[in-house]
Structures are given as C-alpha cells and as structure tokens.
Design brief:
129 residues, mainly alpha, elongated
Length: 129
Amino acid sequence: MQRMLIGMSQEKLGEALGLTFQQVQKYEKGTNRIGASRLYEIGAVLGVPIEYFFDGLENGALKGAEGLRGAVDVGVLSTAEGIQLNSAFFAIPDPKLRRRILDLIRALAGQGDELEQAGNQAKSLDYGE
C-alpha cells in the first residue's frame, strides 16, 4: 500500500524493478511469493526500509492493540478506498470540519451513539484539534 500512498502506479513500480505491472499485481495480491532480494529492491524503490513490510509482526506487537480491535478497523488502510479516504480526510485543513465529517460518517453508518462513547474514551486520537 506504500505504492498507493506515494501515488506510484503498478506500471511505474514494475518499470523501476524491471518487471511487468502484471507481476507487481501478483505480488500485491499474494499470488506470487516475493524473494528477500526482490523485497529489498521494492523497499528501495518505495523509499522504505525492509522492516516496513514486517511492521506488526514482532513478538507482542498486537498486545497493545487488543483494546482497539472493536472500535478501529485497521484493515481499511489495506484497501484502495481506505487509503483514498484517509488521504482526503487529512487533506482537509479545518479540524472542526474534519470532526463534523467524522460525525456524519458515523451517523450514516448507524454507529453514532455506540462510537460516541468509544470516541470519548479514545480521545488520544488526534485529528489536529
């Protein structure tokens, strides 16, 4: 997903690696395995250390996130829509407007009351207010 965050197409990544965009697609979908040396090359092209691809896999890494599982769906950031939504949301400069948009989304999802309580407990999330 780093590729999408920096606005790089599968074709451009493939060109930088000497691959076809179809091969990049297969890597991203998990159809084909990625060797260690290729993973290193991909990290170099995307500007991230190889450890980036293993974030969250350390022992005990998920222990701190246990309490967030019900209120936060971190899997949304692994979708194209999630990345686009996140980028667009944080591109809004006005923190009050971002808060109102968040309230609207919660209301549309039918989670207004339930998430309001969780939101009050999770004020550690900073939307720039």
